[in-house]
Amino acid sequence: MDQASLINLKTGEPVSWEKLEDKNVLNAVSFSPLWVLILSLLSGFCFAAQQICKDSLTGMEIELVDISELPLLNTDLEVDGICPPVVEAFRQKIAAADSILFASPEYNYSITPALKNAVDWGSRPPNVWGGKAATIVSAGGGFGGGRSHYHLRQVGVYVDIHFINKPEFFVPAFNPPPKFDGEGNLIDPMSKEILQQILVSLQEFTLRLSGNAQ
Ligand SMILES: Cc1cc2nc3c(=O)[nH]c(=O)nc-3n(C[C@H](O)[C@H](O)[C@H](O)COP(=O)(O)O)c2cc1C
After folding, report:
1. Domain range enclosing 194
2. How far is residue 118's CA from residue 124's CA, in Å, rounded to a whole number?
3. Which letter does DSSP use for residue 4 in this model?
C-alpha cells in the first residue's frame, strides 16, 4: 500500500509521514467481537487493520483484545473495588491504549451483549474509557450493521469515548462482491481502502486529543 496516497480527511492534504514518525507509536486496541474469535467475520477487520498498520501506517500498532472470557457483569464479583483478574487484565489493556477500534456485529439492531458487557466492565471506577479516541467498523445485512454504531455511540457518551465521525464504515457482508474469504479474511479492495482511511483518521484524531496534532 502506498503511503503517499493517504490524505488528511479534514484538509485533503497528503499526510505528513515525517511528522507522524516523530511521534511515539500509538497503541490502539481492537476487540474480538464474537465468542469464537476465529469464526467471526468481524475478526477479519481486526486482522486487516493490523496488516494495514504494519504495511503502511507508521506510528500505529493494533493489539487484539479477547472479550469472550469476561464474566457477565455482576458487581458482587468485585472485592474491595477490585474486579476479577480476567476483568482487571482487560481494564488495564484499555487503560494503556491510546485509541480503540470497535469491530462490532449488529445483533437485533443493537450492539452485541458481549460488547456491552465489556464496555460496562470498563466503566467501573475508575472508568478506563474516559477520553479515548475510537472508531467503529461493522459488517452485517443490508445496512452493514450500521444501526449498532449509533447505539455504541450513545453508550460512549456516558463513558466519555470520543468517536471519530467520518468516515463511517458499514459493510453489507452478504451482498456481492464477496467481502471476506472462507477463512474470514477481508478481501474486498474497496473495504480495505476505507478501513485504511478510517485508521488514518483515527490516528490523526488520537494525536489531536493528546495534544500532538500537526
Ligand atoms: C442474534 C443475532 C442477531 C443478529 N442481528 C442482526 C441485525 O440486526 N442486523 C444485521 O445486519 N445482522 C444481524 N446478525 C448477523 C450478524 O451481522 C453476523 O452474525 C455478523 O455479521 C457476524 O458474522 P459472523 O457471525 O459470521 O461472524 C445477527 C446475528 C445474530 C447471531
Report:
1. 25-70+84-209
2. 10
3. G
Contact 87, 70 (CB under 8 A): yes
- pLDDT tens, residue order, the chain (214 aa): 344 444 444 556 655 544 444 445 666 766 544 333 334 567 788 889 989 999 998 888 888 888 888 999 999 999 999 999 999 999 998 998 999 999 888 999 999 998 999 999 999 999 999 999 999 999 899 999 999 999 999 999 999 999 999 999 999 988 999 998 888 889 999 999 999 999 999 999 999 998 876 5
Does 2 map to a domain? no
Task: Give this prediction's pTM.
Answer: 0.84
Establish if 129 belongs to a structural domain: yes
Coil vs helix vs strand at 94: helix
Task: Measure the CA–CA gap between 183 and 22, rounded to whole angstroms.
Answer: 37
Best residue for ligand 1 mutational test, from 107, 112, 181 (most atoms within 8 Å of Cβ): 107
146 lines ligand 1 (CB under 6 A): no
Q: Using the mean position of ligand 1's atoms as its centre, give its distance from the Cα of residue 160 in Å.
A: 27
Q: Is residue 171 lining ligand 1, measured as CB closer than 6 Å? A: no
Assigned domain for 10 exists? no
What burial class does residue 21 get, using C-beta atoms within 10 Å of its C-beta: 0-12 exposed, 13-18 middle, 19+ buried? exposed
Q: How far is the CA of 112 from the centre of ligand 1 (A)?
A: 9
In a domain, 149, yes or no: yes
CATH number, position 101: 3.40.50.360
